[in-house]
Request: fold
Amino acid sequence: MVSSAGGPLPSLPAPGFSLGVTGHRCSNAAFRANEDAIAAALEALFAMVAAAAADGTTIRLHALLAHGADLMAAELALARGWQLVAPLPFGPALNRAINAHPESTADAHALLAGAAPAGRDAAARLAAIDGMTARAHVFALAEQDATVTTALLAHAAGEASDFDALVSERAAMAGRVMVEQSDLLVAIWDGAAPQPLGGTRHSIAAMLEQGGPVLWIDASAPEDWRIIRSPEALLAPGPPVPRAEVAALLATLCSPPGADARARAIRFHTEKWHPHSRRRFHAYRRVEAVFGGEPRPLRSLVQRYEAPATIASGSAAPLLTTAHALPGVDARLVEGIATDVLPRFAWADALSTFLSDAYRGGMVLNFLLSAFAIIGGVAYLPLVAPAWKWPFALFEFALLATIIAITGTGRRHRWHGRWFETRRVAEYLRHAPIMLLAGAVRAPARWPQGGETLWPEHHARQLLRARGLPAMAVTVAYLRGVLALIGDAATTQARYHRAKAVRLTRVHHNLDHASERMFTAAVVTVSLYLLMVLGAPHLAEKAAKLFTFLGVALPALGGAFAGIRYFGDFERFAAISEVAAAKFEGLAARVATLATTADARLRYGEVAALAHALDDIVIDEIESWQQVFAGKVISVPV
Reply:
């Protein structure tokens, strides 16, 4: 993956495009009447997808494999060599039993036992489902199978049960998983009245809620295609759109954002690896150490960065050990996390930290050098005759030239922009292992908008897309393991942000006090000189140059401290960390509460929601601090 020195990373994540399909079952009248035309419409759409996708793009179809539109689309996708991913509402055995629609209690028992049903239609449905499931990458939500099985048998026996409600709930959850994974949802729908929870219309609404587009192929008139982009448009979808508009949508969805997105991502992958920080870039962190009240503030601040090649056996080892121990876990997914996701996180984290030191350290150094240049330029006054001013002027010139050099280098190498970009990549990947293990992912339309550069979002999304859903059946025991990982991450992050808030608040106040003391000293100095002018003019004349020097030097230092405080915005960052800490603590409390839930009541949806909450807190925090620093490009301190 990477060399022992840390890098470079060998390649960009493979581009990917994901389709979701939802639609009527074979029992729907419109679907039965237009089955051939619907198949032709899907084939035409899939040809357009293949044309829009760049060479080497991995195309996936996500479907729940219900008997009808799902299986039809799955067959066409497999014929094109696409990957078929099935987020099933139940474990595979229960899924086949339910979707075969057993016609008797005996058939239901037979299906649950893995035997063939007696009914001919049920047997045919079962064969189709089994054949497709065997060819699919299956992520099955099986944690409530025992409850659903009991309801199924009661339902098959004609007894009152909540079977229909349970099936709808499970289908809705699986549909949610499909929607999160999809760039575009294709809906084969007749546009009839609202369907129950988990039906086609519900999946459409879920996609629109996530901000993603829906392509509606009318089951009653398959030649009519409509693009729906908002929940409101679902109520008034408008006329069919020409194929050219669909092709334009597919081209947009398949293309990386921005003309330089790929070039920026390649540069990120081929950056020079720095095993440790550079002392010349430590000015910002030295200010934190000195003014933050840290012990031994003049100690070495050199940081050694964890190499991508060693993170799996280093800081991430406990997480990977826990992941491997999860019951029924997809071992290939864990291996992919260890060899692909975590090294890229380590790479982005180290590179971002290095660039942060360069950018923020450079700006702090500029403020200090500016003050020292002023002080050095007037230091000749109390020390030497005016004829010997030139060495002091030379010293001032050298510092001013250094400021210009630092500023020029920072702008030329885009320290500010690259820090923002690489930090976004690192934070998107920080909790990616937990999200992947939970089968949860941020929906394509829900990623932050990064302003001028969107490649970090595209890059991280493609990396996580390449890993996809785990191939496994989710159980209660598995969910409890993932829940523990979420709780540990939330608690760790809460502690980190609490400590950070305290430290930054202290830095802010101490810088303020230092600046105030400098200005107070300047006022005292000038006042003393004026008193000497009034009371002892001969002494004032002799000390004039010294007092002139002090009257310039003290405000210059005070201004430098004030400038650093303004640039660092320590108080606002402390407030951001306070908010983040409170959110993480709230999340940890939610995890603790859910952990006490009885097995029969623990559902995948609640755990996935907490994984999303963990991810949301991190991304909210990124957006907050980037708003603070967005306009603070490296510059000459004026």
